[in-house]
Amino acid sequence: SGKMGYISLSARFDKPAEKSSVNFDSAKVNDPAQKINIGEVLSLVVKDSIVYFVSTKALFSYNTVTDGLSYVNLSKLGLKNVLKVFLVGKKVILGDNNSGLYEYMDGKIAELPGAQFFKGKRCLMILPYDDKHALVATYTDGLFLYNYVSGEVSADFVDPALQKTLCESRIYSGTILPSA
After folding, report:
1. Which pLDDT band, with edges at 50, 70 and 90, does 173 fall under?
2. Quick check: 26 and 10 in contact, CB under 8 A?
3. How confident is the model at residue 22 (pLDDT cuts 50, 70, 90)?
4. Fewest beta carbons less than 10 Å away: which of 25, 82, 100, 123?
5. Does residue 124 have a pLDDT over 90?
């Protein structure tokens, strides 16, 4: 319809639905008796008809077509400081400030090759660069070119003076601009 709107996923899932099952005011979950506590949503991306979002508790996958919600409890996997979820090409990537970069695929989370390099770094922006590279911006450590296929990481593709400025400026976010 061309109108902008939003949905409060937290309100939809944190409380059991008070309306009848014929209303689509609550999401379908595998176990209807299960109460899902989302908490504060920190970051989200959309891939096709799926909304992936990270909260302080888990990574959630919300299917807008089926109105279904699934999630992965990140703390049970030892990931206790995931603040961001990124979409790089077809990859859904999580940045854990303590242990590095991970990919979410088919309901599972796996460490990406070379992701240990980013251990202890606050990855606040990851943008696609080409078919196997991404730009990774960290809060205080600068900008890196990351090959998510081989795991190679390079910081020397940026002029050292610019890299120093980026480190001092504390990169917080970034975006892809459409080319003219």
Report:
1. confident
2. no
3. very low
4. 25
5. no
